[in-house]
Write a structure and sequence with these properties.
14 helices; 32% helix; restriction system; three-stranded mixed β-sheet; five-stranded mixed β-sheet; C5_MeTfrase; 3 domains; Rossmann fold; S-adenosyl-L-methionine; alpha+beta
Length: 477
């Protein structure tokens, strides 16, 4: 596939190759408690790699001093889930200091403007009782305090969500760190994605940025995915029993599964069995709810399906035009993943429960209906993941789409119980506001990663408009 693209589009391939560069930023050598190297580079290697980076940047800039730098230092050390998993943040974790690689580029190349993005957890992250965010802001304001050998200018640090409360010697002052938090749902994105975004302007530039304009009302999930071609879940296997002898590494008994060959008829039979069980476990099944695979004529979907959504009646005209490309006359990457039959029963229960109660069930709700609905996970009783199966609510913005969607989809269950599945790559892309003509390639896992790790393009567009106005004013001065 890659060779075919290279041969058919040599010029486009060369341009893409020049534009995108995969290169690991250097960080000091790290060793485990036994003295075994875990990763990192020797001091001379760090100097060599930094020189390679600087040469690449200088060649691209061609002496242009007024350029924009955009970056998002790796966020695993700051994320709430990562900190919980690792019992906090350690100053010895090189990931805590990776923002300094971004800072070094600022200190050495002096962009006119920079935009830096990171996770919400950065606001509460602490190392040795010092707030990491306060330290980062201090360093970004004066990169020369860290890189003393580089004659770096200072920067004024702005929020994109709020105007400064005051100024001190021309530098903006904000009362709260949360002023730097961008809540995507306030800016037309159908997702409650909250990210920290900083805007830096070089001290010699006397231009004030505007803030992002909030939308009058949120964009709800069903307005962007509700009219996509309806497809059913795929079926992969069925849990049979536990192995009498063999165990996993954690000591729990191994599970034995039966592989199933997916088909419309098999899906319909299994769904009807599950509906029968759910009817005996409560009153969630509405009278009009009838399983029939013929109502889902697209099956599990495919790489491309004809579609004319969204329309002006679904979402605001600006977002509608953002998604649609009339030349493609459909959507790509709209194919459901395959699921364990027991998980599909939980998906159906969760979607029906949410439809009736307006919110997705927690594990206690599964247990109250029937113990067969309780997931077979080692940490099911710890209370850490009480919301392991989360249905996305139709008339609200979705929850944050992350790269975790590539693992199992349990946090991203479609609100339609008839479809009984997790979101497809295209649906996740709609939630993230990728235009429909953006094709995701690679394995499905890779596609979900590409979607989940991105800044929502519709929000990026609005940030870009703020920055463009800055540069327009810069050129007029």
């Amino acid at each position: 596939m890659i060779d075919q693209l290279k041969n058919k589009y040599p010029l486009e391939w060369e341009n893409a190759n020049n534009e995108a560069w995969c290169f690991e930023l250097p960080y000091p050598e790290e060793f485990d408690k036994n003295g075994k190297k875990k990763g990192g580079y020797k001091p001379l290697e760090i100097l060599e790699r930094n020189k390679t980076i600087d040469d690449k940047i200088s060649k691209a800039l061609k002496g242009n001093r007024d350029f924009l730098l955009i970056g998002g230092p790796p966020c695993q050390a700051y994320s709430l889930v990562g900190r919980s998993r690792n019992q906090g943040i350690s100053n010895s974790d090189h990931r805590v200091h990776l923002y300094k690689e971004y800072l070094r580029i600022i200190a050495n190349h002096h962009p006119a403007v920079f935009v830096m993005e990171n996770v919400k957890g950065l606001l509460s992250a602490e190392v040795d009782d010092i707030k990491v965010f306060d330290l980062i802001k201090k360093d970004l304001k004066d990169p020369g305090r860290v890189f003393t050998g580089l004659s770096s200018p200072k920067y004024k640090i702005y929020s994109l969500a709020k105007s400064p409360n005051s100024y001190f010697k021309g530098y903006p002052i904000y009362e709260n760190n949360t002023d730097f938090l961008i809540k995507s749902e306030k800016y037309g994105v159908p997702q409650r994605r909250h990210r920290v975004i900083l805007l830096g302007i070089r001290e010699d530039i006397k231009v004030e940025p505007i803030v992002l304009s909030k939308m009058d009302s949120p964009t709800i999930l069903k307005s962007v995915i509700g009219k996509l071609p309806r497809i059913r879940s795929g079926i992969s296997k069925k849990f049979i029993k536990y192995h009498p002898v063999e165990k996993y590494a954690d000591g729990s008994p191994k599970r034995i599964y039966q592989a199933l060959k997916d088909s419309d008829q098999l899906w319909e039979n299994i769904m009807k069995q599950q509906v029968g069980k759910l009817e005996t476990w409560g009153d969630l099944i509405p009278n009009e709810f009838k399983i029939n695979s013929e109502n889902l004529v697209n099956g599990i979907g495919k790489e491309f399906l004809s579609s004319k959504t969204p329309s002006e009646t679904d979402c605001n005209i600006e977002l509608q035009n953002w998604y649609k490309d009339p030349k493609i006359k459909g959507v790509a990457n709209h194919e459901s993943r395959s699921h364990l039959t027991q998980d599909l029963m939980r998906y159906m229960f969760a979607a029906l429960y949410t439809k009736k109660n307006g919110d997705f069930p927690r594990l206690i709700d599964y247990a109250e209906h029937h113990n067969e609905l309780i997931p077979d996970h080692a940490n099911v009783d710890t209370g850490k993941f009480a919301d392991r199966f989360r249905v996305q609510v139709a008339d609200k913005p979705a929850t944050t789409v992350t790269s975790h969607i590539s693992k199992d989809g349990h946090y991203f269950i479609h609100y339609d119980p008839m479809q009984c599945r997790s979101l497809t790559v295209r649906e996740a892309a709609r939630v993230q506001t990728f235009p429909d003509n953006y094709l995701f390639c690679g394995s499905r896992t890779a596609q979900y990663h590409q979607v989940g790790n991105a800044v929502p393009p519709f929000l990026a567009k609005q940030i870009g408009e703020v920055v463009l106005k800055l540069f327009s004013n810069l050129n007029n001065d």
